[in-house]
Records
---
Amino acid sequence: MVERVRRPVVWRLAAVALGATLLASCSGDDEGGADATEPPPAQSTVLQPGRPGESNQTLAPGEYPDDDSYNEVDVEFVNGMIAHHLQAIEMTELAKTRAENASVKGLAGRIAAAQGPEIHAMAGWLEARKLPVPEGASGHGGHGGHGGATAEHDEMYGMLTEEQMKELAAADGAAFDDLFLRGMIQHHQGALAMSEKAQAEGSDLMANEMATDIAADQGAEIARMMTILDQLT
């Protein structure tokens, strides 16, 4: 059996580079400006490291490495995670004006700064494979379509229901902080389940990279949110 070599891919570099730019416009635990979470266009170029002795390359989304075959699970994961991220950013937008705790405000800003660029990196993955991109993925950081996901699918993967989102939008101060943390923990736990399925059943190298990184980041954020929640209660 031929061992598949895991080479660096550009997905994470795109998200990190764009996220650093966005995070620079948010001050730590402050609310940040109105455009702090607005991601750049999906066509942003990114840097792909070369192999030892080789120079780096600048790539556009259409040039992302796609030498691995993808399957239905990969496509479901990318589409589902875009919708998942869009709702998370919608939640962080509410935190700008409703959160009271400085740690909650700072966490919300960091989530938005990371997930906005990740949406565009995932949109680039779809574009490179000439697959449809969900509504909202390349226009702005929230209020996007679900790409055909069902209510049962959303509940399975931690998406907040319409009722939960309305309750969150109606809350303020300490009540909002509590609902936000509990809702985002639920949300992140769903992302972990999505990532685990993609890692186990997907076949595309970059999609696997996405799933691995998202699981690591959101697992760490769950621990952080549980700590903050304990401090508030």
Note: Confidence is low (pLDDT under 50) at residues 1-8, 25-52, 140-148.
---
Amino acid sequence: MAASKALEAQLARHFGERLLHSEVAHDQVTIEVAPDDLISMCVQLRDEAAFGFECLMDVCGVDYAAYGQTEWATEDSSATGFSRGVDRKLFNDTDAAVAGRRYAAVYHLLSLANNHRLRVRVYARDDQFPLLDSVTSVWSSADWYEREAFDLFGIVFDGHPDLRRLLTDYGFIGHPFRKDFPLSGHVEVRYDPDKGRVIYQPVSIEPRVLVPRVIRHDHRYEVQSPQEKSPDA
């Protein structure tokens, strides 16, 4: 924890007001930067000897729609919302309600020389067309990571050399990791023996919602008083 706090202080001194937010959680530093500062700050994080983040380990897309509005709903099945456990220390509850705070990319950096890890989070300003600069010019490993975030979340990375879908099918419509994308999808595929090929058709399964924990009110979970307990209990 001491090393993470020291890194956070070092980042604050170096970047000043360009560092929009910083947090230490689980012994790792997370910083937030503005989209316009992303490339220049990433170059400094890579090239400055004090940081030395020469390795980009991952780029994760995030959809913060309805984030923090509902915690674990255990009494009833959550068929319409997006129930989740929320660590309110890491994010403001109002973040997802502010325009330009729905889609973000999170960059996971590693410094082998200094034995440091760092998360860099940047929000796309336009919720309707989330656009960020590509960091492939800084770390070549961003190529496939950015394609994944584009495919699953619809985040467009300006300057990417070959921004195509990576995991979904060629004719796939939509971005399956967005919160407003149905869990069962829009179409399903099957082999048609009459046509001799694979075809697309509307989803035939009924939507299901699985909750991680359901509280059941029956005798197995009722708390008995000492007088009610059996002597053999």
Note: The CA atoms of residues 8 and 111 lie 14 Å apart.
---
Amino acid sequence: MSSAHQTRRDFLYIATGAVGAVGAAAALVPLISQMNPDASTIAAGAPIEVDLGPIAEGQVIKVFWRGKPIFITHRTKKEIDEARAVKDNELPDPESDAKRVKQGKDQWLVLVGICTHLGCIPLAHSGDYQGFFCPCHGSQYDTSGRIRRGPAPKNLPLPPYEFVSDTRIKIG
């Protein structure tokens, strides 16, 4: 027999090699995927990115980071002006609007959406100040998330975030 002539044995070698390669690849997939963090680790603090492009002016969206609701507000010029007009000494927890937003990005307000009184989730565009209103106990926040009236002792907290582009932020 010449070496150029293929036999059944050559076919079996090739078939066995192919099945072995597929089996090795199938064994590597779970081995490699187990190196990724699980859902509880991601929920515990992995940063998230949010695309701001689809958020219309005046709209508030809610995303979740570390199991907490995060309100992202695309404020109107009127809302910004109202927040800037308030004197800091009139507030129970004095903080200027400029310190609650990133410089040059005044239209974007990013807040942890948990009332500082007892941990309820406030409603957006509600209350006397058209900011955030906690219906459980009556805390009212302005368009900058600062406490104006009610039992809450502090302003709505700010999560750590940064702009990665003009239309994307990274929270965490």
Note: The radius of gyration is 27 Å.
